[in-house]
Amino acid sequence: MSGFRFWACLVLAILSLLLPSCIDGHEEVWIEPNGSGRAEITYSIPARAVQLKGGDQAVVEMIRGFLANTPEISQSTCEVRTEGETTRICVRTTFDSALDLKNATNGPGSAHLPPAAKHLAGVVATTLQGRTLDFTRTIQPGKALPGSSLLPTSTYQGHHLTYIIHLPAVPGTHNATRTENGGRTLIWEKTMEEAVRAPIITHFRMAIPIPWKWIALIAAGLGLLAITTTRLLRKRLS
Length: 238
Fold this sequence. Notes:
Layout: H1 2-18, E1 24-31, E2 37-46, H2 47-52, H3 56-68, E3 73-83, E4 86-95, H4 115-121, E5 123-129, E6 132-139, H5 141-144, E7 160-166, E8 173-174, E9 178-180, E10 185-191, H6 192-197, E11 200-207, H7 212-237
Parallel strand pairs: 1-7
Antiparallel strand pairs: 1-2, 2-4, 3-4, 5-6, 6-11, 7-10, 8-11, 9-10
């Protein structure tokens, strides 16, 4: 029994040193009416976790490898900075279609990410029926931090994960913690303790608005059709 206790204490000690358990995350996405958009993702993790991966530059190269091999992302920048005991990772991207992002975590770029990063990226499921978009993302911080359930809850105090999506229209249904901007901005907020105990699921369903440029093109097309039809009728009647 004493041997088991020693092993358990040793494992907990190693986990407390190696796991980036005190993560703070902030993800914010802006989606335009035509489906394009941009995202800003910021995570703060213990510097010792980054050192184990080879340091700031190694993490930058790993993330850039993923971004460069992810065709769903059109432009991107990545910054990794360590100050004291904390490393801040900030990624900014733009994309042409929010629907295509569901393939990003399973594409060729994912080979550049460690399993922990894939669990934090989560699994995205989207369906489009008519003009109704159904979006669900399942994030599993507990799997990204194996053994996190063994750590004391005090480890996570003061640390949070926040996910924000700015939509072009008010969704019909959602499970956000709260909303802003008249209901078009959805915000999910979780403490790290909540995040490691159960998966985080972000979901919304909304009718996709028709972009003004398409309305203009349709109006122009209908106007041209009306003019052409009128001219043909006049020729036939004359």
